Amino acid sequence: MRKELLENVRNSHPLIHNITNYVTVNDCANILLACGGSPIMADDVEEAEEITSICGGLNINIGTLNQRTIPAMRKAGIRANALGHPVVLDPVGAGASRLRTDTAMDLLEHVRFSVIRGNISEIRTLASGTGSTRGVDADIADAVMEETLSEAAAFAKEFSRKTGAVLAVTGAIDIVADEKTAFCIFNGHPMMSGITGTGCQLSAMTAAYVTANRECTLEAAAAAVCAMGICGEKAWQRMTEEDGNASYRNYIIDAVCRLTGRELEQKARYKIL
Amino acid sequence: MRKELLENVRNSHPLIHNITNYVTVNDCANILLACGGSPIMADDVEEAEEITSICGGLNINIGTLNQRTIPAMRKAGIRANALGHPVVLDPVGAGASRLRTDTAMDLLEHVRFSVIRGNISEIRTLASGTGSTRGVDADIADAVMEETLSEAAAFAKEFSRKTGAVLAVTGAIDIVADEKTAFCIFNGHPMMSGITGTGCQLSAMTAAYVTANRECTLEAAAAAVCAMGICGEKAWQRMTEEDGNASYRNYIIDAVCRLTGRELEQKARYKIL
Amino acid sequence: MRKELLENVRNSHPLIHNITNYVTVNDCANILLACGGSPIMADDVEEAEEITSICGGLNINIGTLNQRTIPAMRKAGIRANALGHPVVLDPVGAGASRLRTDTAMDLLEHVRFSVIRGNISEIRTLASGTGSTRGVDADIADAVMEETLSEAAAFAKEFSRKTGAVLAVTGAIDIVADEKTAFCIFNGHPMMSGITGTGCQLSAMTAAYVTANRECTLEAAAAAVCAMGICGEKAWQRMTEEDGNASYRNYIIDAVCRLTGRELEQKARYKIL
């Protein structure tokens, strides 16, 4: 993974507008600062378009969506499209309720996304327009593993072709694909699913990466996914016998804060399908 | 305290629907993961019932309640009752405003709770239908101490008889009671009141414990309270001279993450009245 | 800086009503507890006045403001004024959207503030009634530096004369001024801008300081700013090579928790203009 992808974030400090859930919003803000970006959170329909206009990129996360914030998501997305800003969608819990599925589908219809990042259950829901997700975690049955990798990569490429977005399907193995190329990424640690919001954080960071690397969205999204995975690995190495998921959360953000382009190049583990 | 009460949470990974305040919601999500459960937060009336349906238990916390979320609390509670799911109520700040008191009373009228967990001031407010709480902390005058223990236990039993819920009245000494039996729990550390949200976290964890131990709600709630107290003690032992309440918060969640059934059995300190 | 200013907070435990954004609200609650205060968060218009009434002070922060919370801010502010409670305004992102600028201007018109705390871009927006802020961070062009210090102090004094509020303009150098006197404060560390919410946290803590020191608002606000800066310095000294902004956030709150009046006296670095 080219170190410039990370360094461009640190050098350009992309300002990212986040319309996101209140569960993990603080972690999203801190990881954006950690990676070199700058966060602003604003979800009222009265200011959503204006805030998007002063930013470089937009991150829409539908966790804890509500009747008040859904119109803000749509308006901000349309404005960001008009301005040519990258837009990331995190369809948290799509499939878990009709409201989430419908909101995600409605956004897909009205907004062109640069990247869609979710777990395999959420992405399958978007692809089929229906689904049954176990809360905000991926169904075991759907998990991407070595044996199902090429099938999953084909699925991501196909859905990328339909949506025009780069697909980032994250799990034990992550797939980041446009219609032609899929990065299969092996970085990360199982403990990352033991804290809330690693997915949300990754979506926010992905928005910073693609905003700072406008000419290579696929590669930038893949770099963000590798960076998160590498930091999950580094954070794990710091864990003592008394540490649990609260410290691990802090260590991951700390690692993002310390990560260098050189480390990204050296530690990224992926293959291209 | 039987180690199975904890192990059942780790083995069954109960999915808990939380309608909770935005102050401590991240800690609630992380402690649910730490104890072995799985969190989903959703507070819009359009999806509250549906989200509850895919979960095993429901945790309603009225901190930062608002006109938008109150109907979601009620609908989710009624649906959870219809499905036979355990429901926990945390009446944060009941007595501090009419809106909070009225909302808590309304919920008590329309929803059958498995457990009600609050400080003594909040619980007294519910019992009397009125009250004056100093913010979200218990009044000193109300504090449960060794001398007032049997009186407080009798009060909790009586209110349990009226509501049909297990009462978890937490403070320096915690009381967990149904109409016949009261666990008086001596675990915990005074520093726990020096961080925000230990009560909210305990309510969330209690929902996981009672969901994973359907046949013994009283004992499961008592186990959750013991577990939280033991983790407050273990976290305190980790504190260095530079650590304050931010690190203490992390250490408690870390300790929940590491707690074993064996430790719960060995370190729980309680008597039964 | 007199040690009594800190000790009065620890001795009187001021209860502070916060209407604040959901990004940094947990940190605001924990820093209030760390400094010796007690937080309550409530933003529904139905309870805002009542909650303010049981508190000692009010902290209004317009980050993630929305149509539902804006009326609560105004009502709570007016009630606090009627009761003679100190009120702090944090105009987060004023200048970044019309909604934020207008809301801040409307609040200034209807509520008398004891302290207004913001970065220089936000305060300039309030002073001119218009502005262009880069998100929630100060514009580089506006930064207060040694060369522009006396000019900035004169600006703060003048705006204090107009509003009747103590102005706390924070940045590399902080200025805390009433119409006659400006404290120029040199404590702090550049890394403080690398975490989200140090400004929000400072506003919350300032509310506690001025509530506990009713007869000397200027000095109390200056003490809060010094305390935050000193804790930023102490937290920095704790940083290891693996620590990043997540740990730094915790270390700052920890340092506030441990700060003594004596340290405040010894480590405060300021001059009076």
Automatic annotation (TrEMBL), chains A, B, C:
InterPro entries per record: Hyethyz_kinase, Ribokinase-like
Keyword field contains Glycoprotein: no
The entry's keywords: ATP-binding, Kinase, Magnesium, Metal-binding, Nucleotide-binding, Thiamine biosynthesis, Transferase
EC number(s) per entry: 2.7.1.50
Catalysed reactions listed for this entry: 5-(2-hydroxyethyl)-4-methylthiazole + ATP = 4-methyl-5-(2-phosphooxyethyl)-thiazole + ADP + H(+)
Class in the EC hierarchy, top level: transferase
Pathway(s) where this gene product acts: Cofactor biosynthesis; thiamine diphosphate biosynthesis; 4-methyl-5-(2-phosphoethyl)-thiazole from 5-(2-hydroxyethyl)-4-methylthiazole: step 1/1
Cofactor(s) the protein requires to work: Mg(2+)
GO annotation, biological process: thiamine biosynthetic process; thiamine diphosphate biosynthetic process
Residue numbers binding ATP: R117, T170
Residues where substrate binds: M41, G197
Name of a matching Pfam family: HK
GO molecular function, one term: hydroxyethylthiazole kinase activity
Physiological role: Catalyzes the phosphorylation of the hydroxyl group of 4-methyl-5-beta-hydroxyethylthiazole (THZ).
UniProt xrefs under NCBIfam families: PRK09355.1
Similarity annotation: Belongs to the Thz kinase family.
Name used for this protein in its record: Hydroxyethylthiazole kinase
UniProt organism field: Schaedlerella arabinosiphila
Lineage, highest ranks first: Bacteria, Bacillati, Bacillota, Clostridia, Lachnospirales
